[in-house]
Write a structure and sequence with these properties.
This protein is mainly α and 272 residues long. Helix content is 74%, strand content 0%. The protein is built from 9 helices and no strands.
């Protein structure tokens, strides 16, 4: 009878912390989604300014002209495109807040040493995400759009002229996809360093896989970027640099790193 009571008490103690964690997770999710909703709502009032910002690379590549425009072919297309732009902007703004909520949720379960080790990753994640977004907006797009616009032909150059009549939804979908894709790709140092910190990978192993990673990086760059060589290089080169930075970071922070002499195996000597 005593063992049954003890087992019931153990189950109750197990349920209480679990329920507390679930309630805390629920509060964090409500906070994040509420912030995202509010950010999206605010961004919708500034959607024209956001639209102008996103189409500026294409407008500059087109140059001055009365025929430069984006079109929509469905009655509701422009409205829903504005909603997607507002949602995209809301998620973009909420991203750092999401990371903060993740940190507040997991921090109580970490030791002091683990908190100090994890905090730099938390700070680096939004910085690298914004760097990736800036890379595609300020480097890749100004190089890629003139290449694609070069295929236009005027009436003097062809029997039937070729002129860009891009749909606004397709253009903005492409821009938003590229921004998120570049932002996620720039998370590579955080991801690899975390794997190194827990001992799943080592810097020496990453160094040996360098040639394969170069092929993988250029393959990913070819998939994510517009199909011109310059855009692929503009993504691949920073990713290669971030890969080398990951190796360096693992050597510095990972307790399981082969470079750390304290973690190398040693032979125990026993007295005869």
């Amino acid at each position: 009878m005593t063992s049954v009571n003890l087992e019931n008490e153990t189950l109750e103690h197990t349920k209480q912390p679990l329920m507390g964690h679930l309630l805390d997770l629920r509060r964090r999710l409500i906070w994040v989604f509420s912030t995202m909703f509010l950010s999206t709502l605010i961004c919708y009032f500034f959607v024209s300014d956001i639209y102008n910002f996103l189409v500026t690379p294409l407008a500059e590549a087109m140059g001055p002209g009365d025929t430069n425009r984006l079109i929509y072919t469905n009655l509701t297309e422009a409205f829903f495109t504005y909603l997607k732009v507002a949602l995209f902007s809301g998620i973009f703004i909420t991203f750092p807040i999401l990371l903060i909520q993740v940190w507040i949720f997991i921090a109580p379960g970490l030791y002091e040493k683990e908190r100090k080790a994890f905090l730099p990753f938390l700070a680096a994640t939004p910085v690298l995400f914004f760097l990736g977004a800036a890379c595609v907006y300020y480097l890749v797009l100004p190089m890629a759009w003139p290449f694609f616009l070069s295929f236009q032909m005027s009436a003097q150059e062809a029997v039937l002229p070729i002129q860009l009549e891009a749909r606004v939804s397709e253009y903005l979908d492409l821009i938003m996809t590229l921004i998120f894709a570049f932002g996620l790709c720039f998370q590579m140092p955080v991801f690899l360093t975390l794997l190194g910190f827990v001992g799943i990978i080592t810097p020496d192993w990453l160094a040996k896989q360098r040639r394969y990673m170069i092929i993988l990086i250029f393959t990913v760059a070819a998939i994510l970027t517009p199909p011109d060589v310059l855009s692929q290089i503009l993504l691949a080169v920073p990713l290669m640099g971030l890969y080398e930075l990951s190796i360096l970071m693992i050597r510095m922070v990972a307790p399981h790193s082969d470079a750390n002499p304290e973690n190398k195996p040693h032979n125990d000597t026993h007295a005869a």
